[in-house]
Amino acid sequence: MMNDFKEFLELPGTPQEQEWLKEQLETLSVRESYALAAVSMGYPPEKAADAIKSILSLPDCTLHPAGSYEDLGKYSQKGAASLPEDVLPYVDFDHIGQEFEDEHPGLFIGGYYVEYPKKAAEPAYSGKNAFLPEDSDWSVKLKLASPAVPEGVWLRLPGYDGKMAEDADEVVLALDELRVKSLEDCTLLEARCILPEAGDLTKQYSSITDLVRDGDNLGYVLAEQGQGKAHWLDKFAAALEYEDCRTLKFALDIAQNLHCYEWVPRDGVKEFAANNLRTYHVPEELIRSGNIDLDAYAEDLLESSGYMEAGSETGYLTRNGKEFVRDFTAPAQQDVLKAVPMLEKMSSQAAPEDAAAARAAIAEALAGRGECGLRQLQAAMESEDCASLEEAVEIADRLDSYEFVEIGSFREKAEKELLEKGLDKKVIDRCVDFTAYAALTHEFESIYTSGSTGLYVHGNEAMSPPEQGMTMQ
């Protein structure tokens, strides 16, 4: 069934249009191939701009599993299965299928009926000197192969039909084309993610099913964009950069923990500075008078508050100390050496057998600690200035010897207590060293602030000397 549509590249058009078509056709999925075959047969393109419009219409096509009018009639009559068996021979499903076609124009392709888009929407591309649209409504593209089809076919995520990942038309059609029963019967040849920060997906998953599920999850996360929250995409991109994200699972965790970050958009820096001045009861008239250089003040304030400027220059971001919940990178679900940037860097410089031994030892040490285990390990490693996998294993083994305090909740509680004792908020903001106050109230001789995890750390035992460190077999 698969068609490479090379004839599209022979259509008259600009070099830019030809290049756009070449890129799209290179990773055309099986489902998209079915839909494009139907659309191009129903509306044959005469120039490159027509072919571009056809490709842009593919998300609005609906595929029905029916290879004939009779099948289509049965499929369209959802209640047919409840009819008495002795009635079925008298039902003209063929005619019902034709009536369905009249109401929902389309074309039979292979074992499917491809229904054309219901409404002729405004064309996303008008040709001539118009900008070519960016291909951005996907999350992950996978090239899968099988013994029957070693050259492989493409799978595009998320699915267009809203079904669970494994049941989506994209997956079902790909498996049919590959002549296999499950994703685990396939070989992953190539993987692409719309997020460069997700890293090399081919090295992150031992199960293609898990990769498809995570790719599908990312697709819906990007589509929802925090249910329409302002600046969501800019904040997400900045958080990926801030955390030095290198895996898809970590990107998914970051997406659902964006409340753990404070974001100041570039066009909001003056208001950020103004709001800070208001906490010191600076008169509104003075703030708005123009006599305070809010831009310069904001720049210093952002730097002193630990904000990072996004590489895209869209704004500034920092962690706020709220608990970061790891649903995707919890130790039981994730390679621990890839879940923490420090561990990933150390493992890349270690011998494979040493990395494997460390992976097993750390996973065993963190077992039963739930979602907080990796977070506490990262904070403890930072506090010890951990420089090797051997040290990381030792820290994981004695994680109970450390005490951890949530920075965000401690500051909130401490500020409330100090206000109740009569201290002015301006005095608290200017004069109170919350790190020292945390050490004092918890009777810690020393304390470390882990900004990346939002935890204060106190170690009750000293690290073993290097020569006494754990040796991995």
Explain what this protein looks like in three dimensions:
With 473 residues, the protein is α+β, with helices and mostly antiparallel strands. Among the domains are: 140-228, no CATH class; 233-319, no CATH class; 341-459, no CATH class. The protein has 20 helices and twelve strands. The strands form four sheets. A three-stranded antiparallel sheet has the order 1-3-2, with helices on one face. It has a three-stranded antiparallel sheet with strand order 5-4-6. It has a three-stranded antiparallel sheet with strand order 7-9-8, covered by helices on one side. A hairpin with a 4-residue loop joins β11 and β12 (455-459). α1 packs parallel to α3, α7 (208-228) packs parallel to α9 (248-255) and α15 (352-366) runs parallel beside α17 (389-397). It is globular. Residues 465-473 have low confidence and may be disordered.
